[in-house]
Amino acid sequence: MKGKRLKCWGIIACCLTGAVSFAGCGSNENDGKIEIEIVQYKPEAANYFTMVEEKFNATHDDIHLTISSPNDAMTILRTRFIREDYPDIIGIGGDINYSYFVDAGILADVSDYPGLADINQAYLDIGEALELVPVDGTYAVPYVANAAGILYNRDMFAEHGWEIPETWDELMALCDQIKGEGIQPFCFGFKDTWTCLAPWNAMAVDLSPADAAKQVNRGETTFSTEYREVAEKYLKLLPYGPADPFAYNYNDACTAFARGESAMYTIGSYAVPQILSVNPDLNIDSFVMPANDSADGNTLNSGIDLQFCVTADCENKEAAYEVLDFLLEQENLQEYIDAQTAIPCKVGDFALAPMLDGMAEYITGGNMTDYQDHYYPSEMAVDAQIQTFLIEQDVDAFLQKFDTDWLRYNRDIIRMVQEYEASQGR
Amino acid sequence: MIENKKTNWPVMVLLILGLSTIAFPLYMTIIIAFKQPSEMTNSISGILSLPQHWSLDNFREAMRVTDFWHSLTNSLLISVITVVLSVIIHSLMGYALGRNKAKSKFYNIVYLFIVSGMFVPFAILMMPLAKQTAEMGLGNWAGVILLYVVFYMPMNTMLYAGYLVNIPIALEEAARVDGASTWRTYWSIIFPVMKPMHATVAVLTALSVWNDVMTPLVIMAGSGQNTLPLAQLNFQSQFGTNYNLAFASYLLSLIPILIFYIICQKQILNGVVNGAVK
Amino acid sequence: MKNDRKRTFLLITIPILALFICFNTIPLIRGVYYSFTNFKGFGDYDGVGLRNYIDLFSDARVGKSYLFTFKLAIVSTIVTNVISLLLALALNSRIRAKSFFRGAYFLPNILGSLVVGYIFNYFFTYILPALADMAGIDSLSSSILSSPNRAWIGVMIVCAWQAIAMNTIIYISGLQTVPEDVYEAGGLDGATGFKQFRYLTFPLIIPFFSINMVLCVKNFLMVFDQIMALTKGGPAQSTESISYLIYNNGMSGGQFGFQSANAVIFFIVIVAVSVAQTSFSGKKEEQL
Description:
Structural class of chain C: mainly alpha
Strand content of chain B: under 5%
Shape of chain C: globular
Strand content of chain C: under 5%
Helix content of chain B: over 70%
Radius of gyration of chain B: 24 Å
Number of helices of chain C: 12
Number of helices of chain B: 15
Structural class of chain B: mainly alpha
Oligomer: heterotrimer
Distance between the termini of chain C: 47 Å
């Protein structure tokens, strides 16, 4: 009996020793150095950030930088926030999560950061617009933007002599033509609900006012009015995609496009690295979604893809700014742009990726509008609602649900906006 | 058996056919794990055929990207410590409650209170627990182990308490006459006698802990530590285009438990049945 | 002596009970507390009284997830029990290599359901349509996971595939408790085949039947891993189980307070179902 017991305790002892040595690995013992931790939400850029981390630590003696790029970072961030465990800097998109974080007072005011002077004012304005109600100060340093529209297979277009469409009718005619030649015009990956938003956003900026969500919050209009045309036109795209678009996810769709199974892909520039990972030789270009009936009405769907926010909990703002400076250095930013087909938010002499050729005119001309979904509350799950709509194809039911759900999920925000407006004496 | 009764061949044939529902998915997993992306065609022969080369490259790559050994160590660590703690703590609790609940109101209430914990779905606990474990500095594998010990307590305590009914109290009284304390009596007499139940509890706890995703997902997310199932979850979104790599990783995560099953099949089957039927 | 015994028992019970209260009861109470707030999971929050509960009953998405979960639980329970009972009868009949078959049929149960889900996900998306194409079955030529009407069947198959293993083993141990002479006596009365099963075997394994029912319903109502691996709640939110919805919207969707209310209701439902089942099967056993 005794022997057995001894063995039992032996096992426990072994485990505990192992466990302790493990715990030792976890904690960072960089004596004397200031620790800066970044959690950023783009796992596809993980390699870039590992490189930055190494480069930064090699050149800085006083600060130790850790960057993690987890999958599903928003869940992880929120879980950490629930635990009140804040990283020093978070890299997130310019979307409703950012609005919530500003509202919750999690982020620090960075208006004293000198690097802001070099940031393109247009992107600072977008960041400002994302605040639920105007707040004093600046809470984000925009890093890069992305652009959504239609990616196309340049070689395939040249081979068949297809022309880039500039209006909705031209797009429809082009699709018919492509289909007539036995090629599938689009690929879709609607099994992942968020991909349903890509064409939606790209068309909505052409057809609805940029601040539709805010107008609705003020009670000036309804989505049934603003989004009807978007919804109707979206349905017209479906026949030009695969027979069963809901069977495939984002990765499947990227793979299909990379293998030349379709001529076009309605997605953002952020998909390019993924596509090239499957087929590095694919010659990709892009054009702006021509959802409007006149070419002048079209605008490029572009928003902040990645911005850095310092959290209010960050103990050493100086060090955080030094890290931001490093990230914004010409050389590093250019490397990010090349790797991710992104658009810099910093003013300067940057070379844009050739995949953005077709959009360059809009980018340089500043004809850009932020994503509509950056204003949608995540718990309303608009992506899933659009997926439902695409399956059931009932425009009226979809818009009606959109309006009622909007009021329910934005109840607290609408009340806040109204209180703010009242306090402003309007 | 064979002497006077014939083998029921039609049933045998059906059973063998039925096995294909289990073998086929496993077969697919294995061949996909060995293939290269270029071998993945949509034709039926392409799907079912064996890989052209049996190379371990996919596995090597999968081990690298999922940090396999690290996740495996974490999973093993969590499972083993949980099982050991469960056997010790739950058997003690089962003993204290089982011996007293019939005559003492207090122990009876405690017993019912703990057993009713079985009905509390993890869904209601997870959000407060995520907050609470972090506040206590337990947002790591140690917290996960502690939570498992609490989650499996209702079931295991009930099993132990039920088993104790069959152990005559006279056994203890004999020892007590010799002057041994209750604590010593427990460890020298009762604990060894409950050995069959230890096996059951160990098997049930180990299987549930090993395959559990949700607890580590909620408690350890962002800590940079993975368990084997959690590593698969992360892997899925990060390298989704390469199904071959993904399947190699899935297969790797299944192998430890398969080995365990092949070695301890009998104990596992007995344990599972005991646990459910008691 | 007597005091030593009492003290020892108290010394065992109190710390373990404290541990249990700390990690089970207190979070439960905190969960109930959050259900009366509009907490997002971070930042400030206000008490909102019963608003979350009122919303809950008018929320189509929540209603849909309850319908889906119950549909899945009921159908899976029936399918699982029918198949595993047949399988148990077969495995308990006069066959060779009995222990090999038993071991092999139990295999699915030990595999992690998340990974099993991923494997089946690939199977449903690519292999099954290809097989159906070859066999000329049009209705299966697109992935069943892509249709809101059929995706739940895919989830059900995966749930059943794993649960059958467990239930079969339990039924087998039930069948082994039936003594040979019951059959011999029945054989004299002319009870064979289905009749023998209905009137002789089944009544004797009723306790095992209730165990399986309770196990199945409880596990299926809490289904999570399979959803995560197969559909992530889609398409068109048609396969959101209650646990998945609570996790997804509560942890990452900013509805901490609201989903806490959902979890409280879910808890009550689970207790109600369990109590109903226990008292029902208790009655049934008494009758027989």
